[in-house]
Design goal:
single chain, 326 residues, 16% strand
């Protein structure tokens, strides 16, 4: 009969609390990487074993509500998409009446732009045309009206021109909110069938080739309105005819790039340093749109695909300097 005995963990920090937590974290990690598992966003809470309260919360978010969750102390670290929304919170602009002292840890690179395209039969050639003609557009819009940043950015751009989506509906238009990017069922397919005649969304590379195949025209944001939006904390971005030959002209629009991981300015230096240390140690296990381990040097250097629109937390800045990334 085999002797039964307690086996001491062979890895440092491998006691019972670690084993149980690793089990759950690794299972969750496997599930969120599984194609047919739809629930991919997680909240991670950490505490000492038997402690009455949870000490720290990491929120793998993307929606603008992550900013309020961190500001209220419900989470210590979160992610926001895109960087421009976090920049508005930092400045106290747009939907944020007061500055929120957020700070960046790093920015996941994801190059993107906001787009507004209309069918040729509308005769519309500019956003100003819509206002002047009070045109009743039949618009395809992203679902998730309450928690997707594209709606915040859209509302601000239209407000700069002096109208709103509600105005479009009041002029006799239609606002159709459908889950998914414009390539999802019921979006550009509704343009092709003639049910709708306009689309607004981010994920520019995803749907622009198909929109151009349908003969749609993208509407540029003119210089005075670009400057007005930049004062809020947003950045301009271009989509050129060289990149997209079907465009009528080089398109100036709003940058929708970057997913900043962030915290509050008041987050303790020691905690931020530990977070950065763990990120550096596990950078080869985190998927991203590039090859190999996370290119953390790119992600802290205000790259065009990972714009640093809010300053780094001082402890993060020191850590990345020590790694030779800054």
């Amino acid at each position: 009969m085999q002797e039964r005995r307690f086996v001491e963990p062979t890895r440092p920090g491998g006691g019972p609390p670690t084993q149980r937590s690793r089990l759950m974290l690794e299972v969750a990690s496997e599930l969120v990487g599984t194609r047919d598992w739809p629930d991919k966003q997680v909240i991670i809470k950490l505490r000492e074993q038997d402690a009455p309260e949870w000490a720290y919360t990491f929120f793998a978010s993307d929606a603008p509500n992550s900013i309020g969750i961190v500001a209220s102390g419900e989470a210590d670290f979160a992610i926001c998409n895109p960087g421009g929304v976090l920049a508005m919170a930092y400045k106290g602009a747009g939907p944020y009446p007061q500055p929120i002292p957020v700070r960046t840890i790093m920015v996941f690179p994801q190059f993107d732009r906001w787009g507004f395209a209309v069918t040729a039969d509308t005769g519309i050639t500019s956003i100003q045309d819509i206002v002047d003609r009070k045109y009743p557009l039949k618009l395809s819009l992203r679902g998730g009206r309450e928690n997707h940043a594209v709606h915040i950015v859209t509302d601000l751009i239209l407000a700069a021109y002096g109208f709103s989506l509600k105005d479009v509906a009041d002029w006799g238009g239609e606002l159709r909110y459908t889950p998914g990017l414009p390539t999802a069922p019921g979006r550009l397919s509704a343009i092709a069938s003639g049910e709708l005649n306009a689309v607004i969304d981010e994920g520019f590379h995803n749907y622009t080739p198909r929109a151009l195949e349908l003969g749609m025209r993208y509407l540029s944001i003119d210089e005075p309105h670009l400057q007005q939006l930049e004062k809020l904390g947003l950045r301009r971005q271009i989509a050129s005819r060289e990149e997209f030959p079907g465009l009528h002209e080089d398109l100036w629009t709003i940058d929708f790039s970057g997913w900043p991981a962030f915290c509050m300015e008041s987050t303790p230096d020691e905690l931020v340093t530990k977070f950065c240390t763990a990120l550096e140690a596990r950078k080869d296990r985190i998927p991203w749109y590039g090859d190999g381990p996370l290119d953390l040097k790119l992600m802290v250097s205000d790259h065009w695909s990972a714009p640093m629109m809010v300053p780094l937390h001082p402890a993060a800045e020191r850590f990345w300097k020590q790694q030779g990334y800054l």
